[in-house]
């Protein structure tokens, strides 16, 4: 008789095995800027988990620590204290090369300002992460076409960012973030530069790709209208976390 394995909660990546446990686990995370009387405590010992397959919204007033937290999760910054696990990998202990591979292969970033390369077409922008990974060109072209149609831009592949609307540019950025089939999407106010309707459409697209692509997403947003699309809302208040638990409108 086969015993069921109880890897639950382990969350440690072993070569050749898919990591189990939550997609993100944060334990007692501290990050301060500056020192002495002028020190800013951006994160004051926060702990939480992001379950796999969920869309988690991160809210909080300006300066509450959202960007600081997302940068730490993405390995763009190092904490003063505390542990971070992303997709079974201990991010804090990683060296430069491993961090680079984590960011390239397992995390997709979406920024408020889109971050597209102006001289490249929409399709070329989406293909950049796959080029960095030296993916087979044919495979890359197929996936780029699929992703552009997924985000509703199949007819705009050749246009450069400057020839696209803000909402369309953010759709390209979402497609690019998905290029290498990341486990985790990290988005820092992805609708911050968009009008309300366009912002809602972009958030609905993120909601849809979390379902269709099986990714997990952590999205910082100021916009209360977008919080209703999340499975869960985390709130930062002056560097401390308030967990709102599962949302009543969860679908
Ligand atoms: N590089 C830095 N040097 C010094 N202080 C910083 C730095 N980055 C952030 N801070 C401070 O840390 C605190 C948290 O900033 P953070 O950018 O994480 O907030 P946020 O929640 O993302 O705000 P917003 O909603 O305006 O984007 C703020 O008080 C900010 O001034
Ligand atoms: Mg911010």
From TrEMBL:
Molecular-function GO terms, alphabetical: ATP binding
Residue ranges of the region described as Disordered: 1-22
UniProt-listed Pfam families: ABC_tran
Residue ranges occupied by any ABC transporter domain in the UniProt entry: 24-251
Keyword Ribosomal protein assigned: no
Keywords: ATP-binding, Nucleotide-binding, Transport
Domain of life: Bacteria
Entry keyword Nucleotide-binding: yes
PANTHER family per the UniProt record, alphabetical: ABC TRANSPORTER RELATED, IMPORT ATP-BINDING PROTEIN
Protein name as it appears in the record: ABC transporter ATP-binding protein
């Amino acid at each position: 008789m086969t015993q069921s394995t109880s890897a639950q909660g382990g969350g440690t990546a072993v070569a050749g095995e898919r990591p189990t446990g939550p997609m993100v686990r944060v334990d007692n995370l501290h990050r301060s800027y500056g020192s002495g009387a002028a020190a800013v405590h951006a994160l004051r010992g926060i702990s939480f988990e992001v379950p796999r397959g969920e869309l988690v919204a991160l809210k909080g007033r300006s300066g509450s620590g959202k960007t600081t937290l997302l940068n730490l999760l993405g390995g763009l910054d190092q904490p003063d204290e505390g542990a971070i696990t992303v997709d079974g990998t201990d991010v804090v202990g990683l060296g430069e090369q491993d961090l680079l591979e984590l960011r390239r292969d397992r995390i997709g970033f979406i920024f408020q300002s889109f971050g597209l390369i102006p001289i490249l077409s929409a399709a070329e922008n989406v293909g950049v992460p796959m080029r960095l990974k030296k993916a087979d060109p044919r495979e890359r072209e197929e996936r780029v076409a699929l992703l552009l149609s997924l985000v509703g831009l199949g007819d705009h592949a050749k246009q450069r960012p400057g020839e696209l609307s803000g909402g369309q540019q953010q759709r390209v950025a979402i497609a690019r973030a998905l290029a290498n089939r990341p486990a985790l999407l990290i988005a820092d106010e992805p609708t911050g530069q968009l009008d309300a309707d366009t912002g809602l459409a972009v958030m609905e697209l993120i909601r849809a790709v979390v379902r269709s692509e099986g990714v997990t997403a952590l999205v910082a947003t100021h916009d209360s209208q977008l919080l209703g699309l999340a499975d869960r809302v985390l709130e930062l208040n002056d560097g401390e976390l308030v967990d709102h638990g599962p949302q009543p409108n969860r679908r």
